């Protein structure tokens, strides 16, 4: 059963939303202000947060900023503000979806289900990418054997850190697939890392160590990185 943290200071609305979410099969926690919400999130680690914009003490945007410093928990923002610039601000700060008041309970439940379903598919993909294949993989003159933790280029061994090795392995298994920096952090790095510079630095080092072949690791602007597929011979 997924756990949802509802952050809403309007008592009557919070009661209705909680009732509907529980009827849909979710466990619901409730906070009426931003500081309580952050404390509950830290203690309970919910699967999703339904977050009102206008809150006492800390407003929804401040709560979202604090959350995104260390957490990727799904956030569905609720607000009476319907201007496009307000929606953009919320989404750019890291909200996963946005619902403008007044809204129907049916739409709220549908948005919650869609977010949780998307998160589950992402978890499955992440688990598959973390596990990976143990079969050797080649890319032109580049060869990588995960069982032996061995990588060679033109027959010469490559000196790769564990993170660089896992990053290269993921790219080699998925030529043409674009990966976001946050996905690469979740998939490749064992230790928690704040910010995207760790990925950019690792890509920079990989490109340098691969020489001319490193140019085939492409930057996908606004997304992250991908390995350009090799052209078939002929």
Automatic annotation (TrEMBL):
InterPro entries: CheY-like_superfamily, OmpR/PhoB-type_DNA-bd, Sig_transdc_resp-reg_C-effctor, Sig_transdc_resp-reg_receiver, WalR-like, WH-like_DNA-bd_sf
Modified residues (4-aspartylphosphate): 52
Residue spans binding DNA: 134-229
GO molecular function: phosphorelay response regulator activity; transcription cis-regulatory region binding
OmpR/PhoB-type domain boundaries: 134-229
Alphabetically ordered keywords of this record: DNA-binding, Phosphoprotein, Transcription, Transcription regulation, Two-component regulatory system
Boundaries of every Response regulatory domain copy: 3-116
Gene3D superfamilies for this protein: 3.40.50.2300, 6.10.250.690, Winged helix-like DNA-binding domain superfamily/Winged helix DNA-binding domain
Keyword Transferase: no
Cellular component terms (Gene Ontology): cytosol; protein-DNA complex
Any Pfam family matching the protein: Trans_reg_C
Gene Ontology BP terms: regulation of DNA-templated transcription
PROSITE patterns in UniProt: OMPR_PHOB (PS51755), RESPONSE_REGULATORY (PS50110)
Cross-referenced SUPFAM superfamilies: C-terminal effector domain of the bipartite response regulators, CheY-like
Protein name according to UniProt: Response regulator transcription factor
Organism: Thermalbibacter longus
Phylogenetic classification of the source organism: Bacteria, Pseudomonadati, Thermomicrobiota, Thermomicrobia, Thermomicrobiales
């Amino acid at each position: 059963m997924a756990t949802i943290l509802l952050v809403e200071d309007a008592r009557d609305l919070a009661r209705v939303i909680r009732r509907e979410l529980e009827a849909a099969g979710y466990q619901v926690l409730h906070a009426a202000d931003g500081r309580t919400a952050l404390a509950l999130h830290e203690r309970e680690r919910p699967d999703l947060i339904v977050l009102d914009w206008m809150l006492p003490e800390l407003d929804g945007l401040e709560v979202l900023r604090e959350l995104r410093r260390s957490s990727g928990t799904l956030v569905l923002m609720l607000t009476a503000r319907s201007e496009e610039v307000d929606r953009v601000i919320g989404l750019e700060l890291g909200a996963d979806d946005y619902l403008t008041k007044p809204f129907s309970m049916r739409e709220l439940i549908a948005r919650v289900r869609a977010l949780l379903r998307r998160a589950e598919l992402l978890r499955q993909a992440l688990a598959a990418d973390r596990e990976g294949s143990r079969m050797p993989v080649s890319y032109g003159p580049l060869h990588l054997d995960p069982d032996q933790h061995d990588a060679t280029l033109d027959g010469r061994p490559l000196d790769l850190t564990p993170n660089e090795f896992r990053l290269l392995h993921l790219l080699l298994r998925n030529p043409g697939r674009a990966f976001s920096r946050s996905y690469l952090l979740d998939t490749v790095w064992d230790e928690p890392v704040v910010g995207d510079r760790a990925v950019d630095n690792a890509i920079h080092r990989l490109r340098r160590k691969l020489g001319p072949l490193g140019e085939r690791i492409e930057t996908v602007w606004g997304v992250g990185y991908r390995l350009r597929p090799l052209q078939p011979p002929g």
